[in-house]
User: What shape does this take?
Amino acid sequence: MLALKAIKQTQIPAAVRLIVSRLREQGWETCLVGGCVRDLLLGKTPADWDLATAALPDQVRAAFPQVPLLEQGLKHGTLGLVLERQVYEITSFRQEETYLDHRHPDQVLFTTDLNRDLARRDFTVNAMAWWEDGGLRDPFGGQADLRQGLLRCVGLPDRRFNEDALRMMRALRFMAVLGFSLHPDTARALRQHSPELTLVAVERLRAELDRLLTGASLLPVLLDWKETLAVILPEIRPLFGLKQPLPWHIYDAWEHSARAAAEIAPQLRLRLAALCHDLGKAETASVKDGTIHFYGHAAVSRSLCEGLMLRLKYAKALRATVTHLVARHDVEIPLKPAAVRRRLQEFGQAGLQDLLALKRADIMAQNPALRPRRLASLQQVELLLQAEVARGSCFSLSDLAVNGRDLLAIGLRGPAVGQGLRLLLEQVVEGRLPNDRPTLLQAARNLRP
Ligand code: ATP
Ligand code: MG
Assistant: This one.
């Protein structure tokens, strides 16, 4: 049972108070709604301040003649008010609408009845409104559900998921972020309507997926809702039930991937890499001498991960980072400073730290009996990395004590300059030469034809 906090006016930003009080003075019922009310009752700082008002958008506009407005949400009745370089969204009360395509209401109907506005909202814990002199409005038992950590659709779950399939992804996201569970009727409807997720625009899905993946309670969602997730991530389905060899593994390939993803720090690039690192195992599984092997799976995982990220329209830079980690997650790093420097050269410092984090999560998701030994050897690599970083070790051309101009000055020309620099870097990384200017200049002189 969660204890709920009392909401105090002092927790609310001055700009929000100004907007609400001006509209209320003019006689329009106006209040905080949705996520910010939920978060305040939970004692959390809200991510954004959703405001709702009985005033129509034109009436809101008239109430703030001097304030710059953002109008992209206008067709949903939402205006953005820009105060002190922050945008505050205010939505005119709307009522139940009809949906023909599982995602957009056919028309937006305004109302002055707050309860009707709350009735169109997705979950009871998101269907509460608050203002100091109005108190808490909670017509659907949101507080009771919040105390129990329960997500329950407002109204009939079947109908609500049928209207807007995105609500199912939102349910999974709230479970992963808040650690809540689903009311049985909501859960049943969600399983039944999952296939309709394919109808939702990929940008909307991904916004929810990203928050889901970085949630603190990710593991149960990945395990209990794998079939739903596989509707939008079909690449994961072949891992369900895919056996992995003892003694290294005690989980099937999906549970292993899910555990790795939940284990790694909640940053999107790391969570995606952990989730995708073994995607190629189903395709590459083979049995040799009675043991199952996945030869070359990292390369196949890489290409499946690339396809998944392209389909979900992830930015190119994130795609490159994640797919590189996936492709290289199995690379051996011998316990030698030169080997660590070679990896530093390939990944950069931050990238190598990510790779080691991925390796650590991978180990944590394998047989716990083997963990101490495997973690100990990974820790040796981490210590070597720290030592290299601490001594300002050279692992990229920009760290090298000589540059292209130096090589030109001693008579190298054209492509020989670049080749010469790379050769010197290799010698330094391998520890055959110190990163010291006179030594490197001498070595460069020896390269002249
Ligand atoms: P957070 O801001 O923490 O992401 P939130 O619940 O505020 O969570 P928003 O996307 O900001 O999420 O939506 C604000 C409110 O609008 C929600 O609390 C909910 O009441 C309502 N809402 C949002 N999306 C939907 C939807 N697809 N169907 C019904 N109601 C929705
Ligand atoms: Mg919100």
